[in-house]
Amino acid sequence: MKKTIRIFLLLLLLPVVLYLWGVFNNNRDLPMPDRSQLASHRESAINWLLQHKERILNDHNAMLWWMVNEAAKVSKDARLEMLVNEYKSRNRGLGYSIWAPLFWPQQRLNIDETSLYGLPDYNQHFIYSLHCADNLLVDLPVIAAQNRADFCFQPSHIYRPACVTHQLMGINFQLRQHCAPEAELQPVIASLQNDIVHQLTWDIRVIDVYLQRVMMLLITGADARVKPVWVQQILDHQLADGGWGDFDPLIPLGSRSPGFSSRILSISRPRSSFHATAQGVYLLTLLENKQKHPH
Length: 295
Fold this sequence. Notes:
Helix content: 55-70%
Radius of gyration: 20 Å
Number of strands: 3
Mean pLDDT: 91
Shape: globular
Structural class: mainly alpha
Strand content: under 5%
Low-confidence stretches: none
Strand order of the largest sheet: 1-2-3
Distance between the termini: 66 Å
Largest sheet: 3 strands, antiparallel
């Protein structure tokens, strides 16, 4: 009986020990990967975009194309510019759509509630922020709530891993578009950055949202808070084809394995996606550019 109890306790302790080891591994002291490493991994990721050109051009997620466009502007990479130009060419109505300010910041519309029907709450917040629609939409509960730093701690949002990064993206668009004084937005930005640092410290799943968290710290000027090990983790989890996905296997078992995903645990296989890889290209571009121009 005592032996059975000991075995049972060991089985209970094993996940705790493995998790603590994962936390240690995810926060260990490492040097920042050098520029040549960043450039090599970025090159592999761009090649993934080029090899899957037709597939990604059929993805009309404007936010992902904004990331590719921002990476193109920072790096002056002709291949990324070519991809973005082809995306714009295939979507000629983009300049008159609710997403226009992503690419033409002054192309703002008179947004009303009907413009937001059917969109997830974070996309509604993006649109509100991109168009500086404070006089039209700020009284909507879904908008007003996302302008407060505690939005993602509501019971209905606490299990959404990308809630904080989405909210910070919206607030940052307000800053970029000069919708509100910087002094008014910075306390919310600082609070959300703190939340993201805590998430990166304790959430050891190197999946899509992991890249998104690092990317948002870089976009919002908190690059000094990005631990080198988090960057190394992203490089180590780049797939052989050059992309990233939303699944981190625990035990490789052939075609399908148990592992981490945005649903916490899943049985799947690693597979690159445009969603994760666009974020990877943008964040590596920002990191490489910072090393190229440290001041």
